[in-house]
Amino acid sequence: MVAPALKSPVAPVGTQTVTIAKALNMGLRASLERDPKVLVMGEDVGKLGGVFRITDGLQKDFGEHRVLDTPLAESGIIGTAIGLAIRGFRPVCEIQFDGFIFPGFDQLVSQLAKLHFRSQGKLKMPVVVRVPFGGGIGAVEHHSESPESLFAHVGGLKVVSCSNPVDAYWMLQQAIECDDPVLFFEPKRRYYEKSELDPTAPPIPLFSSRVVRVGSAVTVAAYGPMVRTCLDAATAAAEDGQELEVIDLRTLSPLDLDPVFDSVRRTGRLVLVSEAPAEASITSEIASRVQQECFYSLEAPVLRVTGFDTPYPPSKLEDSYLPDLDRVLDVVDRSLAY
Amino acid sequence: MSPEQWTRPENEGTTGPPAATAAKPTREQVIAGLRATSEGGADLVQLLTPEGQRVEHPDFDIDIPDAELRDLYRDMVLVRRADREGNALQRQGQLGIWVPLLGQEAAQIGAGRAVRPQDMIFPSYREHGVAWCRGIDPTELLGVFRGTDHGSWDPNSTRFHLYTIVIGNQCLNATGYAMGQRFEGKVGDPDGEATMVFFGDGATSQGDVHEAMVWSAVYDAPLVFFCQNNQWAISEPVERQSRVPLYRRASGYGFPGIRVDGNDVLASLAVAKWALDECRQGNGPVLIEAFTYRMDAHTTSDDPTRYRLADEQEAWKLKDPIERLRVHLVREQIADQGFFDGIDAEADELAVRLRNFCFNMPEPPPTRIFSEVYAEETPQLVAQREDYLQYLAGFADEAIAGGVR
C-alpha cells in the first residue's frame, strides 16, 4: 500500500495555541482521517485515551478496529503490529512508558528492524512506536528512562524525538507516512508546554535537525526534553553576554549532522546535552563524528552534559541526575575556558 | 463440530486438582500421569495406523481420492530427498548449516496441503515441506543455509513468510496478520481467509507464543497454531517444556486444541483442513499439536547421541510417515511398483538439481550488505557504501597492475 503524499491536514484550522499532548492527538487524528490503513494500538489507548490522554477521543470517533485497546503485553503490541504491517496496515503503537519497552525489544530488533533487509525490500514495515520518555515527573522506577540510544544502534530502525507542539504535530504524521519503522520518542515532561501551531504552514522534513536559536559563542545541541533546557540556558547566557547557538537534533537515527558541523565551524565549540547515560550513546556518536568532520575548526573538545552511567535513580534524586540549566551553563563555561 | 466440544476441560484426573477425598499425589506421580506429553495418548487423531491400515475417526473422517493419496506420497518422498541432500551438502561444506525435517514429512505435507492459495503461512525454520506445498522450490531454501541471503522467495506472492529463526517470534507476527484478515472482513464464509503458523514444542515455552494465543483469542483471529511436537528442543525433552499435553493449553486461552498423529499424513491433512475451515468461518483460532518425532539432529551442529537413546529412535522408525502410506498404497492397490520407481527417479533428479544449483550459487556482491536496509535509504549508509566500494576499488587497481595482496 502506498500512502498518499503528506498534504495539508484533512480539516485545516487556524493558528492556535496547543500543548505537545494536544498536537500529538491532532497529528494522530489527521493520520487516521487521511489513511484508513492507519491503526492506533496499545494499552489503554481507547476508552481512557492513553495514560497521558494523547489518544483522547480517537476510539470514539474511529472505532475499536482503528484504535485498539490491546492486551497488556508489549511484545504482543509490537509483534502483532508487524503482522498487521505485512497485511498492509500502518500501525502506530503506544508504549506507556520508556521502561516498559523492553518486553517488546526482541520483536523490535529481531523482526521489525530486519524484515525489509531480510526480504530485500519485498516487505515494508511502516510501523511507528511512540514512547513517552525521560524523567522529571517524579515517577516510580521504569517510568523515566531514556533508552533511545539502544534503538539508534540497530540497523533498520529510525529514531526521532520531538521537542515542541509544531514538531509533535508534523513529525508524528510524517513518521506514520514513512515506510520504515520509526521509534518516536516524546518528551513526557514537556507534554503540557504550549506554543502556537498553524496546521496549514508547511512542515520541515522529518529526518532533519534544525537551528532553533542563533548564536556565535558555543553550539549547544540537544533533543526532546533537553531542548527547552538548552533554550533556557541560552537565555540566561545571553544575559551574561554569551550568545549560544541551540540545535534541536530532532532525528537521532539517521542523525542529521550537517547543521551541527556548520555551526561548529562557526563557533568552534560544541556542548551536547541529553538525559541518557553518557556511555555508548547518541551524544558519544555525535562527539565522534564532529571531531572527525570539524577537527581543524574546534577550539575546545566536544563536551557533554548527560545523565550518569547508572540506572535511573529514585525520583527524589532526579534533580541531581538530570541535566539542568546550571549544569549546561557550567559546561558551556568549561568549553569557553579552553 | 462445535469448538465448545474442544474447550471443555478434559481428563481432569491427570491435570486437574485432586479430588477432595483422594490423597495429594506426589510430584513424581503427577509427572508420571502426564505420559501424554511423551506418548501419543488416547486423544490422538489417527486415520492411518503405523501398519498402513486405514481407520475411521468419528469427527475427522476424510475421503481422499487415490490420485491425491499418490500425490501426498510423492510430496513426502521428494521433500525427504531434498532434506537428505541438504544434510549431505552441509557435510560436504557447501552449506553452513542445515535444519533437517526427517520424520516430520507427514505433519508438514498434511498441513501444507490443507492450506488454500488465499491463506497465509508463517513458518519457523524447519518447514521445508510446507514451503514445498507453497510452490517454493527447494533450491530457494539453500541461500539461508549457505549464507547468500535470508530467504529468496517473495513472501507476498507465495503467501509464505520468510523463515523466522528467533523461537516463537513468528506466532505474534502471524496473529497480527490474521487480525488484519479479520479487520478486512475476509472471514465468515467458507471461501474466507485463514493464517497458519508453525512452531515447535520448545517454542511453547516462549512468552511470544503465550501472548500470541492471548491476542488471537481476544481478537478472534483466524489463526491455526500448528505445533510440531517433535519431542525435543535441541537437547531439552518436551517434559522440560510442559506439565500438561501441549494441545490442552488451548482450553486455557479459550479455543479448541487437538492432538493429531503427526506421522499420519491423512490425519494431519484432515485436522488441518477442519481447523482452517473453523478460522475461515470466523470460529478461530485453533491449536493443533502434531505429535511426531525429529528423527535427525536439531541441526547439523547438534549431536543427539549425547541426550537421547537409540531405543527411542528405533521405536519411532516403526511409525515412519512415508512407509505407512506406502504400505497403504500397496495394500489397497492404489499404486504399483512402476509408480514407486517413478517417484524414486524423480527424487534422484531433484537431488542432482539441488546439488548442482548449490555448487553454482553466486556469491552475493559486497553491496548486498547495504541494500534494502530501509525503504528510504539514509545518508549514513550511502556514505558507508561509497567509502567501502572505494576501499575495494583500491585492491582492483593492484590486481590490474599485477600486484599481490
Automatic annotation (TrEMBL), chain A:
Its EC number is 1.2.4.1. It holds the Pfam family Transket_pyr. Its cofactor is thiamine diphosphate. One of its GO terms (molecular function) is magnesium ion binding. Residues 18-193 form the Transketolase-like pyrimidine-binding domain. SMART domains: Transket_pyr. Keywords: Oxidoreductase, Pyruvate, Thiamine pyrophosphate. This is Pyruvate dehydrogenase E1 component beta subunit. The keyword Coiled coil does not apply. InterPro entries: THDP-binding (IPR029061), Transketo_C/PFOR_II (IPR009014), Transketolase-like_Pyr-bd (IPR005475), Transketolase_C (IPR033248). It is an enzyme of class 1 (oxidoreductase).
From TrEMBL, chain B:
GO terms for biological process: branched-chain amino acid catabolic process. Gene3D superfamilies: 3.40.50.970. InterPro entries: Alpha-ketoacid_DH_E1_comp (IPR050771), DH_E1 (IPR001017), PdhA/BkdA (IPR017596), THDP-binding (IPR029061). Residues 13-24 have a biased composition (Low complexity). Residues 1-25 are annotated as: Disordered. Its EC number is 1.2.4.1. Residues 74-348 form the Dehydrogenase E1 component domain. The keyword Manganese does not apply. Its cofactor is thiamine diphosphate. Keywords: Oxidoreductase, Pyruvate, Thiamine pyrophosphate. CDD domains: TPP_E1_PDC_ADC_BCADC (cd02000). GO terms for molecular function: magnesium ion binding; pyruvate dehydrogenase (acetyl-transferring) activity. It holds the Pfam family E1_dh. This is Pyruvate dehydrogenase E1 component alpha subunit. The lineage of its organism: Bacteria, Bacillati, Actinomycetota, Actinomycetes, Pseudonocardiales.
